[in-house]
Amino acid sequence: MNPIIRNVLAVIAGVVIGSFVNGEIIMLSGSVIAPPEGIDPNNMESIKAIIHLYQPVHFLFPFLAHALGTFAGALVAALIAASHKMSIAMLISLLYLAGGIYMVTQIPAPTWFAVSDLALAYLPVGWLAAKLAERKQMRSAGKLILLLFTGILFSACNPLNKFQSASPYEVKAVLSSWLPLNKIAPDDPALFDDSIHTGSSYCPELSEPFWLIPSADLPQDVKPQYSNNNVSISVFNNRLYVAFRTGPTHFASKKTGMYIISSADGSNWKKEMELFIGKDVREPFLIPIDGKLHFYCFAAGTKMTAFEPDFISHYYISDDGNWTGPENVLDKGEVHWSLLNRNGKTYLSSYEGSHYNLKGESKVSLNFKQTSNGKDFYPVGDSARVYYGGVSETAYEFDKAGNLWAVTRLEDGDKNGFGSQVVFADKNDWGNWQFPETTDLNCYMSPKMFRHGDDLYLIARKQMGKKPFGKANRNLSMKKQRIRNWVGFSLSPKTTALYRINQKERKVEWVMNLPGAGDTAFPSIQRLDKDLFLIANYSSPIKHRKKRSWLNGQLGHTGIYLQVISFTPCR
């Protein structure tokens, strides 16, 4: 093998192995040393308020996770490397040291722990790992050690133990009573406007999550892998359909695929379809249009760090239960994001262009289209394009008066900055989107919107910590801004959150957190009745309520849950 390629693979393997070992030790710690009562690890203010209750013993496992994770990553990288073993091992150590420095700025740990952790858990153990790897005995035993770490990576623990539902019966009870009575879900909020009192205040309440994937409820021929993330749900012919992506990690792979399953009661599931085509498959979306259930996804490449969308593949199922497809829809490279049945039509937000380019100007087109048959899409206004710059995923919804509201994911950055935008379009001109002059520095990624009465809600990924996503100095080059914003985002913890749109001030306001940690947030929302919504989402394990970075989560186990959000008059 070419030495340069081998060294690059060594670095990748070191990061993967080190992140895995770090995450597994952190997950184990909660079952060995219980954290102080009353702490909410998804809330930074809660940690600040209660961290004084932490005893020195509570910092033992974090230190071991950092030290052993760095050691494992550096050792594996040095063993694989064709040359420069010490340099590559120290590069792994520096990467984890950077993550440690970032976490020290976010989590108010005692000074003695921060100093000892940064001084001892990274560079010294990386140096030791490199020295061991350079020994002749270790080089001859390299294959055995790599096999050992591979075994740890893929079989360290049963994923079912990480995604156990405390009380799955709440969600199952709703589905078992609701599905037999409803052929499809009445999703348009306008259908319920007369039954929800104008001016009344309603508060959301969450059921316990039902962890469906992985679980013992799945059919035997549905085999979730280590990472289960992109998800979509829809009701059709008295059955709940769930489409989800599964693969070795969150990133592109030849082994990545997609399943569609369905159930008539929330307990008994059958496999509808599977898609394994030897390359990445992403962005599942299910929606009933014109008497058929339509399914959309796109095939991509196999490069771990590349975003390479091809045509959107379109399938549909009729009343006879047979699936038809695939056929290509939209333009090559155009990515669908949100489809909604509203006002007697079906609307689509999509994007296409140079998404995730590190250098140069952002050249991504945000489109707004409509369809009557699920196959042919055409502009809502004079042009499909409503924005050109750094915006990709965009959620939208219509208010009670018929005006359109949207929240963008401005991740690539442009002249307006980095973060998100709250957008408005008058009811008489939905194709003319009005963008704000200033950008919200918080980036609401994987956004989806819905409406209950007068209130517009957003579910999206929430970045934890003191600094927002778009924190980089705007005077820097676009490349440097992207690096700082993207790296900071990848190394910080995440959760999923419910937000409300302040329509008067045109801004996003936090309401509550949903279950989420590490790699999380790809919400799918299905309305069941005027006050009841079914949510599907994915997350890294949260059983022990531990905080882990987004990157760490993307390399680890993720599962998919169902949850009910109900709205009741506020007390």
Secondary structure layout:
Elements: H1 3-32, H2 44-50, H3 60-80, H4 85-106, H5 111-120, H6 123-134, H7 136-140, H8 142-155, H9 169-178, E1 202-206, E2 210-213, E3 227-236, E4 239-247, E5 257-263, E6 269-275, E7 281-289, E8 292-299, E9 312-317, E10 323-329, E11 335-342, E12 345-353, E13 364-371, E14 378-379, E15 385-389, E16 394-398, E17 404-408, E18 410-414, E19 417-419, E20 422-425, E21 445-452, E22 455-463, H10 478-490, E23 494-502, E24 507-514, E25 524-529, E26 532-539, H11 550-554, E27 559-569
Antiparallel strand pairs: 1-27, 2-27, 3-4, 4-5, 5-6, 7-8, 8-9, 9-10, 11-12, 12-13, 13-14, 13-15, 16-17, 17-20, 18-19, 21-22, 22-23, 23-24, 25-26, 26-27
Helix pairs in contact: 1-3, 1-4, 3-4, 3-6, 3-8, 4-6
Structure overview:
- There is one protein chain.
- By secondary structure, this protein is α+β, with helices and mostly antiparallel strands.
- The chain has three domains: 3-155, no CATH class; 160-329 and 522-571, no CATH class; 334-514, Glycosyl hydrolase domain, family 43 (Tachylectin-2, Chain A, 5 Propeller).
- It is built from eleven helices and 27 strands.
- Strands 1, 2, 25, 26 and 27 form a five-stranded antiparallel β-sheet that branches.
- Helix 3 (60-80) runs parallel beside helix 6 (123-134).
- The longest helix has 30 residues, at 3-32.
- It is globular, with a radius of gyration of 24 Å.
- Residues 152-157 have low confidence and may be disordered.
